[in-house]
Each structure stands twice: as structure tokens, then as C-alpha cells.
Design goal:
With 273 residues, this protein is an alpha/beta fold. It has helices spanning 32-48, 70-85, 98-106, 123-128, 155-172, 192-200, 202-206, 220-226, 234-246, 257-272, and strands at residues 2-4, 7-9, 15-21, 53-57, 91-94, 111-114, 133-137, 180-183, 213-214, 251-254. The structure holds ligand 7PM. Ligand 7PM binds next to strand 7.
Length: 273
């Protein structure tokens, strides 16, 4: 069972988290219009398509991206969270900033998705003070430089040690186990070979005893394996998602919700038969 505020997910089937990026690089006019109507339309479509959670992100963690100010991030995500959460939809916010977490929770977000795994000062306390869920993700390095000189002796061991430590820190801060999700952080300070080993051995992360989320949708590893540009990676992304589900992943973070939900329906029917 996963508790996200008032929402409770039994985890007897894989959940789909639909990605809603509200950054200037994800639309044409710099964000205001997108935040106003296009983002809401997109959220509605993902819900129609079967998304369980809408993951709203207002900061670009793209390597080399200019940092987003707290004020700007708040302006991008808070109005949207209010509108979507008001309909009773589970909303997750993809942020590293405690002040954004706090405002997002006040606006109705019921999950914090943090690529820094609550390492920012004050982040653990913000999440512990509410009944929201948290996704603790592994990242090696900082977004700006994380893809430079990436090396590991054993990437799976490093990710496990990190996630175990962050889950313990979360529990020590008062975040109960039923609110914690772990994510190996595909693409965050990892080369293709590291992402493949992590996916191949995902069961070892699942064995830590927390629900595992996986985000490989449209990422460069899929591009490297297929030779496809970002908009042409649906099939590759779904293959990766199913490989993750086969190894016990419980949440799939995806851009192409309709196709992902269809694939999971077929997968599940086969498993249950
Ligand atoms: C630039 C770089 C743009 C990276 C977008 C991204 C994950 C996440 C992201 C993930 C969790 C993307 C990423 N990826 N949260 N947020 N897990 N929990 O490709 O893998 O969407 S942002």
C-alpha cells in the first residue's frame, strides 16, 4: 500500500505517472500560455488515457540548463497543481526545493518527487510534516555536470547504498514506510551501460522492500539503443518499462501515457491468466 495524502494505492497493479513539464524548453512561448491552458489540456488527456498520478515539474534538470529561481518555479507549478488537485487527482511535484515542496503541498500535491532524494536542507522536515508520499531518486553528481566523466565500480551497489541511506534518513525524520518510493534515477549521472545494468538488475532494488519507480521514458539511453530522436522513442520506452515491470517496478513515469497503459494492460492480462 502506498499512501499519498488522502490517496491510497494498493500497488496490486503498476501505476502510471504521467509527465507534465512546465519548463520553457518544453513549449514554444516561454511558459505562460502553457501553464494557463495547454498544460491543463495535457493533464486532462493523460488522465483520460489512464494516468494514475500527474507529475508536474517546473525546473529543468537538463545537463547545462540554467538554474530556475524558486520564484519562477513556484509561478510555474503552483497554479497548475491547484487546478489539477482540486479535481481529486493525485498530483506529484518534481522539485528539489523545500520551499516549492511546501507550497506544492499547500496547493494539493500529495507526492514529492525529488531527484535529490530530500538532501536539500529542510526537505526531510517539509515532507515529514505532512502525509504526502515521496519518491527518493538516485543521482550521481549535479544536473549541470552529471553526465561528465561518469564511472562506477558497481553501479547497482552504489545506487542501493544511496537509496537505503536516504530511505533510512526519511524514516528517521518521521516519514512512514508506506509513503516512501525508491527510484534508481535512469540517466542521472549514468551512461547507457549503467542504465542497462540497473534495469537488468532492478530486482535487487525492488528487494530493498519499497515500491520502485522507474523513469526511462524518451531518455537518451532509448535513443542510443534505437537511433531515434526524442519524439520517436515510444516503442523503445515501453520495452524498457515492461522490462522494469517484469523485475518488480510498481510505478512507471511516462510521457506517452496511452501507449504505456495499453502495454501494461496486456502485460497484466498475461500475468494473471
Ligand atoms: C532534462 C533532463 C529534462 C532530465 C528532463 C529530464 C526522472 C524524474 C526526471 C526519473 C523520477 C526526464 C528527466 N526523470 N523523476 N524526473 N525519475 N522519479 O527525462 O527518472 O523526464 S526529469
Amino acid at each position: 500500500m502506498l499512501t499519498c495524502g488522502a490517496h491510497r494505492f494498493p500497488l496490486d497493479r503498476t501505476l502510471v505517472m504521467g509527465v507534465l513539464n512546465v519548463t520553457p524548453d518544453s513549449f514554444s512561448d516561454g511558459g505562460r500560455y502553457f501553464a494557463g491552458t495547454a498544460a491543463l489540456d495535457h493533464a486532462r488527456k493523460m488522465l483520460d488515457d489512464g494516468a494514475d498520478i500527474i507529475d508536474i515539474g517546473g525546473e529543468s534538470t537538463r545537463p547545462g540548463a540554467a538554474p530556475t529561481s524558486e520564484r519562477e518555479e513556484l509561478a510555474r507549478v503552483v497554479p497548475l497543481i491547484e487546478k489539477i488537485a482540486a479535481r481529486g487527482v493525485p498530483v506529484s511535484v518534481d522539485t528539489r526545493k523545500p520551499a516549492v515542496m511546501q507550497a506544492a503541498i499547500a496547493a494539493g500535491a500529495t507526492m514529492i518527487n525529488d531527484v535529490c532524494a530530500l538532501r536539500a536542507p529542510g526537505a526531510l522536515e517539509v515532507v515529514a510534516g505532512h502525509s504526502v508520499a515521496v519518491c527518493l531518486m538516485h543521482m550521481k553528481g549535479e544536473p549541470a555536470t552529471m553526465q561528465q566523466n561518469v564511472t562506477y565500480t558497481d553501479v547497482v551497489a552504489d545506487v542501493k547504498i544511496f537509496l537505503v541511506e536516504r530511505a533510512a534518513a526519511a524514516e528517521a525524520a518521521g516519514i512512514t514506510r508506506d509513503r516512501i518510493v525508491l527510484d534508481p534515477g535512469f540517466g542521472f549521472g549514468k551512461k547507457v551501460e549503467h542504465n542497462l545494468v540497473l534495469l537488468r538488475r532492478l530486482s535487487e532494488i525492488v528487494a530493498l522492500g519499497f515500491p520502485v519507480a522507474v523513469g526511462m521514458s524518451r531518455k537518451s539511453t532509448i535513443g542510443a539503443l534505437t537511433g531515434r530522436e526524442v519524439g520517436e522513442r515510444v516503442a523503445g520506452s515501453i520495452a524498457a518499462a515492461l522490462a522494469a515491470v517484469a523485475r518488480g517496478a510498481k510505478i512507471i513515469r511516462a510521457h506517452d501515457v496511452r501507449e504505456t497503459v495499453d502495454a501494461l494492460k496486456v502485460w497484466r492480462a498475461v500475468q494473471e491468466g
